[in-house]
Automatic annotation (TrEMBL):
Keywords: ATP synthesis, CF(0), Hydrogen ion transport, Ion transport, Membrane, Plastid, Transmembrane, Transmembrane helix, Transport. InterPro entries: ATP_syn_F0_a_bact/chloroplast, ATP_synth_F0_asu, ATP_synth_F0_asu_AS, F0_ATP_A_sf. This is ATP synthase subunit a, chloroplastic. GO terms for cellular component: plastid; proton-transporting ATP synthase complex. GO terms for biological process: proton motive force-driven ATP synthesis. One of its GO terms (molecular function) is proton transmembrane transporter activity. It comes from the Eukaryota. Belongs to the ATPase A chain family. It is a multi-pass membrane protein. Coiled coil: none annotated. The keyword Ion transport applies.
């Protein structure tokens, strides 16, 4: 019986070690880092920082060209935060919501627009950081930490009163909800981006000239929508946490 249990556990461990595709890993301090994700993520971050620096280098009272575009983007992101969090408390959360939106949008577009497959790596291949579950889970956990911080910062320990409202019977469901929020955020983003890249790859192999182009354009639109959904839901969760549960 004991031998059978050992065999079953060993089989589970073997299955959990199976990977889909090959990946480039870096060994740093005994830890494995996903090289593909780090490379493209830093390229996206550098591109965003460069755009922000160039667009705000010579500010004018009457905005033109890139400054005008940058102000439009900021106003758009402010509206997301304002509509979900509320007019009185949204300003302090604009940097977080804007960063989440721009990073996800840049990552999604990097995977849809740039032919990473042309760059040869020792193992694996470059792709959008958001088609890796580790990236989307990390972003979702950041959102979870943010709305817990928002609720505790405003309401103190009274924030936890929300778990027994409107009745203590809902305590398990309310606790479970806090686990499902990051799960739904991460798997929605990961699944959509991975599916889009797989569809484009299949069409490119089957019909390499005309068909992939409209699919890629549709992928850009879907990538933008996914960035909007993630940032909007993040703002909504923060706004929910900021409600005055502890004041009742």
């Amino acid at each position: 019986m004991y031998q059978q249990e050992v065999e079953v556990i060993s089989s589970y461990i073997a299955v959990s070690a199976v990977e889909v595709g090959k990946h480039l890993y870096w060994e740093i301090g005994g830890y494995k880092l996903h090289g593909q994700v780090f490379i493209v993520s830093w390229l996206v971050i550098i591109a965003l920082l460069s755009l922000a620096f160039i667009g705000t280098r010579n500010l004018e009272r009457v905005p033109k060209n890139l400054q005008n575009f940058m102000e439009f983007v900021i106003e758009f992101l402010q509206d997301i935060a304002k509509n979900q969090i509320g007019e009185h408390e949204y300003r302090s959360w604009v940097p977080y919501i804007a960063t989440i939106f721009l990073f996800i949008l840049g990552s999604n577009w990097a995977g849809a627009l740039i032919p990473w497959k042309l760059i040869q790596l020792p193992e694996g291949e470059l792709a959008a950081p958001t088609n890796d579950i580790n990236t989307t889970v990390a972003l979702s956990l950041l959102t979870s930490l943010s709305y817990f911080y928002a609720g505790l910062n405003k309401n103190g320990l009274g924030y936890f009163a929300r778990y027994v409202e409107p009745t203590p019977v809902l305590l398990p469901i309310n606790i479970l909800e806090d686990f499902t929020k990051p799960l739904s955020l991460s798997f929605r983003l990961f699944g959509n981006i991975l599916a889009d890249e797989l569809v484009v790859s299949v069409f490119t192999l089957l019909v390499p000239i005309l068909i992939p182009l409209p699919v890629m354009i549709l992928g850009l639109f879907a990538s933008s929508i996914q960035a909007l959904i993630f940032s909007t839901l993040s703002a909504a969760y923060i706004g929910e946490a900021l409600e005055g549960h502890g004041e009742h």
